[in-house]
């Protein structure tokens, strides 16, 4: 069974690492904030002191980190991945990062005789815990085939997107849709609430008609209950929309809806909602309309 180094035990990474252990893989974990690995160690994981320690004997390395700056620190920093990676190692980044950074990591990995896949995921905390993530993968298709059983231990679907950088590009395009859908759901629910419509009845209508979406399915009840327990944070969605905005500018793609959604999430972040679930962006609308969207009519 392959030896895996897993770096990043946050909202998503913890569940992903746990599923690798359940599938019988030998896993060595590292998290930048200490104290996150307790239950994983009880389930058989080994804990590394540094990223370099996590990858030194690994055949496959998986990173699940919050942003470009943190990824740079883990890969290029002191006692980072590139200090210890061996020729033949396959590096897989499942974070949401810029395509340009994915290409930079690819080039550095190849200079050390290793391979790199950008393989971000869709699916929030419940999917990470339940092993039902979808991976979108950029990189050599031959390399993907070598690690497909590892990815399917954490997810139910693996979709090949193309050359390195394609996975990162696909993820930003995908999360652009998710962010716009969340903004649309919040706005529609605010209109309904202001017009005296019962929130539960309106959500049932949304899910029964042309406005139905996975976002409404996952977030509608949370909004009605003012339940902002984090599945995917507002701050991370804002980060992804900002990355997508930079990408689309470079591609010369007009993105008026992306820019509107990004502005809404920036408002939410300025309200101090960044560490709550992205559905908390509805609190901006509640402030504007002067009532809770989930209030009974």
Automatic annotation (TrEMBL):
Pfam families the UniProt entry points to = NAD_binding_11 (PF14833), NAD_binding_2 (PF03446)
Query: What residue stretches are annotated with the 3-hydroxyisobutyrate dehydrogenase-like NAD-binding domain?
Result: 165-284
Report the residue ranges that make up the 6-phosphogluconate dehydrogenase NADP-binding domain in this protein.
3-162
User: Which protein family is it in?
Assistant: Belongs to the HIBADH-related family.
Q: Does the keyword Transmembrane apply?
A: no
Taxonomy of origin reads: Bacteria, Bacillati, Bacillota, Bacilli, Bacillales
Annotated protein name in UniProt: Tartronate semialdehyde reductase
The alphabetical list of record keywords is: NAD, Oxidoreductase
């Amino acid at each position: 069974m392959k030896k895996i180094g897993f770096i990043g035990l946050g909202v998503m990474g913890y569940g992903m690492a746990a599923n690798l252990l359940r599938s019988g893989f030998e896993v060595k974990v590292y998290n930048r904030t200490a104290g996150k690995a307790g239950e994983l160690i009880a389930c058989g994981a080994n804990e590394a002191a540094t990223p370099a320690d996590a990858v030194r004997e690994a055949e496959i390395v998986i990173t699940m980190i919050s942003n470009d700056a943190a990824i740079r620190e883990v890969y290029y920093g002191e006692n980072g991945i590139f200090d210890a990676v061996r020729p033949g190692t396959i590096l897989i980044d499942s974070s949401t990062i810029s395509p340009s950074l994915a290409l930079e990591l690819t080039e550095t990995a190849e200079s050390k005789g290793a391979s790199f896949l950008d393989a971000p995921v869709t699916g929030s905390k419940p999917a990470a815990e339940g092993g039902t993530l979808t991976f979108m993968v950029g990189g050599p298709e031959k390399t993907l085939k070598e690690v497909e059983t590892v990815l399917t231990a954490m997810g139910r679907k693996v979709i090949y997107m193309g050359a390195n950088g394609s996975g990162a590009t696909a993820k930003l395009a995908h999360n652009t849709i998710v962010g716009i859908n969340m903004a649309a759901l919040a706005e529609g629910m605010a209109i309904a609430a202001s017009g005296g419509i019962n929130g539960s009845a309106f959500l049932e209508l949304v899910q029964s008609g042309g406005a139905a979406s996975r976002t409404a399915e996952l977030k509608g009840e949370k909004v009605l209950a003012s339940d902002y327990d984090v599945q995917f944070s507002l701050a991370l969605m804002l980060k992804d929309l900002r990355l997508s905005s930079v990408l689309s500018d470079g591609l010369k793609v007009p993105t008026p809806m992306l820019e509107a959604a990004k502005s809404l999430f920036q408002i939410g972040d300025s309200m101090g909602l960044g560490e709550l679930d992205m559905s908390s962006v509805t609190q901006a609308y509640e402030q504007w309309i002067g009532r809770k969207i989930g209030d009974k009519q």
